[in-house]
Specification:
Blueprint (H helix, E strand, L loop, with lengths): L21 E4 L2 E4 L1 E4 L8 E4 L2 E13 L2 E12 L5 E2 L3 E7 L4 E2 L2 E2 L8 E2 L3 E11 L8 E8 L7 E8 L14 E4 L4 E13 L3 E12 L5 E2 L3 E6 L5 E5 L7 E2 L4 E11 L8 E8 L4 E9 L4 E4 L5 E4 L2 E13 L2 E12 L5 E2 L3 E7 L2 E3 L7 E2 L5 E2 L4 E11 L7 E8 L5 E8 L7 E2 L4 E4 L6 E12 L3 E12 L5 E2 L3 E6 L5 E6 L5 E2 L4 E11 L6 E11 L10 E12 L12 E3 L2 E14 L5 E14 L5 E2 L4 E8 L6 E7 L15 E8 L3 H4 L5 E10 L2 E11 L9
Parallel strand pairs: 16-25, 37-47, 45-51
Antiparallel strand pairs: 1-2, 3-15, 4-5, 5-6, 6-12, 7-11, 8-9, 8-13, 10-12, 13-14, 15-16, 16-17, 17-22, 18-21, 19-20, 19-23, 20-22, 23-24, 26-27, 27-28, 28-34, 29-33, 30-31, 30-35, 32-34, 35-36, 38-39, 39-40, 40-45, 41-44, 42-43, 42-46, 43-45, 46-47, 48-49, 49-50, 50-54, 52-53, 52-55, 55-56
Length: 702
């Protein structure tokens, strides 16, 4: 059961705020106690010697089944014996004497006693008559006593009109604590804007995990309550995937859509969970929503057209060759009761007040869907190329439906003020969920090297095919968002084969960015690049799906002086016992140099293959002034793969560097510098380096 969303108002007579209750987190049942700053409530009732009971919160609002009162009683036992809760009960009565039956929230039913020197909170709920308010209601606390008439002894009464739900001041935090969860939460910022039909409230909400185990917010729901008790859902599509690690602090964006005549004052944000066992929504905390500055615009972000609701989600802007690709992301939802085809739409653009021409007016489907069932949505993308130097001030698109070859129907003009809104990757993993192309893209490692002029970037992704059948590797776009505010494209390795179900492929990426882009934290953007089927003449014309932001510490990589555990794609190499010597053809002439060594190559069994072409590169540089250098490369994958290296224990290996003129180039043969790289996308990545004497076997560990 769910509360009505958005414009389906939920009317109540009077709304209080709630500061704790029962909640399910990650499938684990817990009773929550939320602590608000500066709370003030009436005194508790004494129910026995050294035992008190207190109503800490009250909430009253209409749910799908009718008007419900939800409240929590905190029992504090400072005595020497166990308190039996079965001896006590609470009744809901109106001021006129009518009673209502109550129930204990499913998650608290197992709490039947309170040990000495401890406390317990139990949440109750009751369905009551429409039209009642907190001013009309009382909670009578009763003890079963067979020595009195009716066997029920009245312990005392909580008058709900006296304020058992103290308001939490704007921006003040609430700590929601339980045996297995402790969260510090607060409202960070609030923005109110209006268009022709609605008032939109945007709330930034902070969650800080104070506990030692992760918190999953999959079951959490948010609602905005107006002063007259109407409730509207505050939504975030990423909430189901939100995980807050121990000691981690995350900010999420919530959006609530209210009628335009509702003022942005006196609002409250309520959070809680849907209890399937009880069939109702159980609140867990409430916050005063600060008064927001109001932005009045003529921005139209969504409208109803025929059997569809059409909404512009925002714009994304990414580099594409010498230009930028500006993309409008459109969400189309079937609002009818029947199956509907995906509408064929086309777009025209107006940028900074000037109408623009585009060679690709057709909107491209990001999802692989032919039709939409009731309530189902699909994301479409409209694209246009713009100069990378262009500053965007005002962007709008006009949408039309292509009914047939001769007929087009105008839908309307859409605007959005959202540019490059990125999803945050969880555990350095971007989760792409397009139908037929589900995949996880994990950032395994990223390195950089400052050469004094620019910064070389190189790293590896692990792509896992989450579909039940083999799939071609999706084309991905990797970008670096620099400190200078620019977004730089990086080169990504290609793969022509099929990826088996649950198969895992290592995908390399490299690039060069200006020194001005460097920061303490590297912000990488990852997205899928889908063919723009509206432009068959240009295979590089693509549209992007969701864009994920993955952050990593930005430090310069330094080569190891030991040639052990060198990671190259899915391989781990260890080299030892190097011995460089002349390859003599007779007593007076040489063909070049030979390098003997031992190696082990360990293959990661969890990886099926590698994209691009990884090459193992040896450089031997003589340390005389001429710096004569010898190079040898070996392809580890791809069509040029060699069988020079194998993963079968410790193997002795000899590399020959041919140069008949070597004796003319080098005279003393004292020392050489040995460097081991891997190369990818024509970029060298230095892994290990050391200066070693000629004709000397390195028996020591290098």
């Amino acid at each position: 059961m769910k509360l009505q969303l958005t414009k389906n108002l939920i009317k109540v007579g009077l709304a209080g705020t709630l500061v704790f209750g029962s909640v399910t987190v990650s499938g684990v049942s817990s009773s929550f106690a939320a602590t608000a700053v500066k709370s003030a409530i009436p005194a508790p009732l004494t129910i026995a010697k050294n035992v008190t009971a207190q109503v800490k919160n009250v909430e009253l609002f209409t749910q799908d089944k009718g008007l419900y009162l939800v409240y929590t009683i905190n029992y504090v036992n400072n005595g020497a014996s166990t308190l039996q809760l079965d001896d006590y009960w609470a009744k809901i009565k109106t001021t006129s004497g009518k009673s209502f039956s109550i129930k204990v929230v499913d998650k608290d039913k197992k709490i039947t006693t309170v040990a000495p020197k401890s406390n317990a909170s139990i949440t109750y709920y009751a369905a009551i008559d429409e039209g009642l308010t907190l001013k009309n209601l009382r909670v009578n606390l009763i003890k079963w006593d067979f020595n009195v008439a009716g066997y029920m002894k009245n312990i005392g009464t909580f008058d709900l009109a006296k304020g058992y739900a103290p308001a939490v001041a704007a921006y003040e935090p609430i700590t929601i604590a339980a045996k297995e969860t402790k969260l510090k939460t607060s409202i960070k910022t609030v923005q109110s804007s209006v268009d022709d039909e609605d008032r939109v409230i945007d709330i930034s909400y902070v969650i800080e995990n104070l506990n030692t185990r992760e918190y999953k917010a999959a079951t959490t729901q948010f609602y905005v309550m107006t002063p007259d008790g109407s409730i509207y859902s505050a939504v975030n599509s990423d909430l189901k995937d939100l995980v807050v690690k121990p000691k981690e602090r995350k900010t999420i964006s919530l959006k609530a859509t209210l009628p335009i005549d509702v003022k942005a004052t006196g609002l409250k944000l309520i959070t809680g969970y849907q209890s399937e066992a009880d069939g109702i929504f159980i609140p867990t905390a409430a916050y005063q929503v600060p008064k927001a500055s109001e932005v009045v615009t003529n921005v139209v972000t969504k409208m109803t057209y025929d059997n569809y609701n059409i909404e512009i989600l925002g714009y994304s802007r990414l580099p594409s060759g010498s230009q930028d690709a500006l993309q409008a992301n459109i969400k189309v939802t079937n609002i009818s009761n029947d199956e509907q085809k995906v509408p064929s739409l086309k777009a025209s653009w107006k940028i900074n007040g000037v109408a623009q021409e585009t060679k690709t007016p057709a909107l491209i489907a990001v999802d692989s869907k032919l039709q939409l069932s009731k309530g189902e949505s699909i994301q479409l993308a409209a694209t246009i190329f713009i100069p990378y130097t262009l500053t965007l001030k005002d962007v709008s698109i006009n949408l039309k439906e292509v009914v047939d070859e001769k007929t087009e129907e105008t839908i309307g003009s859409f605007r959005s003020d959202k540019y490059n809104v990125y999803k945050t990757a969880v555990d350095s993993t971007a989760a792409f969920t397009r139908v037929g192309s589900k995949s996880n893209v994990e950032l395994l490692k990223v390195r950089s090297k400052d050469d004094g002029k620019q910064v070389n970037i190189f790293g590896d992704l692990a792509v896992t095919n989450l579909e039940y059948r083999p799939n071609s590797l999706q084309k991905y776009g990797i970008y670096l968002k620099g400190k200078d505010g620019q977004i730089y494209p990086l080169a990504v390795g290609e793969y022509e084969g099929q990826v088996i179900s649950s198969g895992r492929i290592i995908v390399p990426f490299t690039g060069k960015v200006p020194l001005a882009a460097k920061d303490n934290v590297m912000d990488l953007l990852i997205t899928e690049l889908l063919p723009n089927t509206g432009d068959a003449s240009n295979k590089d014309n693509t549209v992007s799906s969701e864009i994920y932001s993955v952050t990593a510490e930005w430090t310069d990589s330094a080569p190891s002086t030991k040639f052990h555990n060198l990671a190259i794609g899915k391989y781990d190499f260890t080299f030892d016992k190097f011995y460089a010597y002349l390859d003599m053809s007779n007593y007076v002439s040489a063909n070049g140099l030979k390098l003997d060594f031992e190696y082990t190559m360990v293959e990661d069994s969890n990886v099926d293959d590698m994209a691009g072409t990884y090459k193992l590169r040896f450089e031997l540089e003589d340390q005389e002034s001429a710096k004569v250098t010898f190079v040898k490369e070996f392809a580890l994958n791809g069509k040029d793969k060699t069988d020079e290296f194998a993963s079968s224990g410790t193997i002795k290996k000899t590399i020959q560097f041919n140069d008949p003129a070597i004796l003319d180039k080098i005279t003393n043969f004292q020392e050489y510098k040995l460097s081991i790289y891997y190369t990818i996308n024509d970029q060298k990545v230095l892994l290990a380096q050391k200066t070693i004497p000629y004709f000397y076997i390195q028996w020591m560990n290098l």
